[in-house]
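Predict the assembly for these two chains.
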Amino acid sequence: MAGSLSPARSATHRPGQPGWLRYASPLHFHPLAGRLAPWCFALAAVLALAGLAVGFLVAPADAQQGEVYRIIFIHVPAAWMSMWIYAVMALYCALSLVLRTRLSAMMASALAPTGAMFTALALVSGALWGQPTWGTWWVWDARLTSELLLLFLYLGYMALEAAIDEPRRAERACAVLGLVGVINLPVIYFSVRWWNTLHQGASVSLTAAPTMAATMLAAMLLMTLACWAYAVAVALVRVRCILRERGGVAPGA
Amino acid sequence: MDNLLHIFSGRHGAFIAWAFGSAAVMFGIELWLLRRRARRSAREPR
């Protein structure tokens, strides 16, 4: 699908500029997002099926927790994605404030609902894991509380955007909120080291060998990649909607 | 299949089913809302 305005007529690409920079223009990005989204959805479906198959059919039961540990295959990818999406969203917020690129603000706005969904999923699946293993659905533990704060940051971002009618003002206000909220990410990540928490420490680290079986790790990584591909696909579709709603391209594009 | 039956009929099978079921519901709701928004934005801008 192509936008109603021909990319060839766009004045955003200047001679001597790197070619990929033209995708910072809504007119060029809209058709590109439309082409990429179906592939990302397909990749997410394939990776999720593979991850579930390895997680439920190949990975063994845990020696201590038995079968209930399998919640890890949705809980950990959702928790990782909740933080990763916020980091990407904050990067777009910084770009929109510094370079004043409207597409950056739109990408941040497109990522917020998906980030909120993954945060809610991490909290719900964590509660469902906590009850059989800890004996409680919820504790005001540093890791859980900071993750709940992340959900409020996402919801606050979306509420602030909806509360300001003028899009440019809303973009600036949301960018500031998005950047301020970044401070919560290291708090979530290091909370299990900084404080004595009920939540277990990291099972996977870049600097140490994993403390779980290879098949368990493979299923968790496959599910994480599936969630990542899903988040990209959904953000691409949503940014196309935002572009059409704000008049970046014609409604029928 | 026996493995799945063992997992979901076990002592904590309901917790596993709820966790993955709630994930499916959340993904479903997000995709449904996104599809509705895409259709609306394709018809006319706000």
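Chain B touches chain A through 29 residues (CB under 8 Å). The helical segments of chain B are 2-8, 13-43.
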